Amino acid sequence: MRSLSCTLLLFVALVGKATNAFVSVARAPGARAAQKLDIPRCLASTADDKDSDKAKYDHTLAILAMPSTSVDRIVNDAILVAAVESSNKLSVVLRCEGRDKPTLASLRRYVGEIYSQLWDCVMEQGENLVDLDVVVYPQNLPNAAPESWIDIQPDLDCVCSHDALCGWVSEAATGRGTRFQDSRGIGGVEDHVAALNRERKSRGLNPVDALPVQLSGPVLEDPSGTVVFLEDDDGLTSNVKYQIDCRDDTSEVNDEGCGLLSGAIASREHAELYDHVTVGGTFDGLHFGHRKLLTLAVSSVTPVTGKLLVGVTMDEMLTRKKYAEYIPSLKDRMEAVRKFLHRLAPGITNRVKLVPIGDAFGPPGQPDSHFDALVLSHETLATGHLLNEHRKSLGLQPLKLLCTLRTEQYGMSSTALRRKRWNEMQRKAEKNVTK
User: Fold this and answer.
1) Does 276-420 carry CATH code 3.40.50.620?
2) What are the entry keywords (predicted)?
């Protein structure tokens, strides 16, 4: 038994109406405390189910694969969330076998990412999980214990993964929800666990439960072909040509006749540059996630001629958010965005427009809109598809959905910043009372 594997913030989302992609975690038949967990946004926790008395496994083995695409990372992160929520002790196996073995440096980098993601999940779950015992086992890391050693640990009682990562031969599997990946992935989590239990029985060990993570939704399904994952290498990198272009009238000129403010210009041969790009958000606190999103939006605009529209949610659309009283005013949030964009890309200032958003779809959903791309995070990809359906009903072309992975979403979030402000106010109030 040896498995081979190697594997906007849309405007609707801004007002709390996003339709999220879901990850279902279903226990195998006969598993204890049988339940189904729906995990919004592929990386999210079951926020409504933080009961400390919830049944948990003593020791869960989470099986991941070294990622090569953004979807692979989404699958891995979903497995981690499900495993963290379901276990008191966690062993994370990172498989990296197959034809394309990663370099040692890339393996080390991804191990660091896994630990960061785990810590982010634990922090969101609260103090009860701070002491969660976690070890990550990269299978190509020198001297690290093999998966087969974890398989026979006496306290192991659960295996969590995705079907495409646990087939007998699945080195091309990418976790897109199919049990058989063109005959390259045979079996799944439950079949893997059944074989593992036969081995454990022969050693006099207790059987383990299967905890399969089943992904569905727009993150994995793109029949329209409108989704572009911005962090993925689309094969164009080697063909991208860079040229210096000084046609931007707003740019200062240096001795070489080049614009100091416009920067290097990517040739239009690069497929991921667009003439009319839009992005939206609350931009509350303008945390690093917001800055990443805005940077990717700027990088998607055609130099010299392209335009960017940034939608900022109006105050009245945010009243139901947690700690809403600590959200800065629309004026302050728009000013923060304006200052950031001016620092990031001063040469594009005259081609950026900031507008308040007070309805579901914003400017891209209007009959006379002329946008061709929307920048958003993968957790709001479903609403990107909804917007495109709305545009089709208006006789408009669908937008290209330029998607980025949202990482460390618990710690790096507007809610976390508002909670911090609330805590600071509470501490000040307590000090005033004691004086």
Assistant:
1) yes
2) Signal
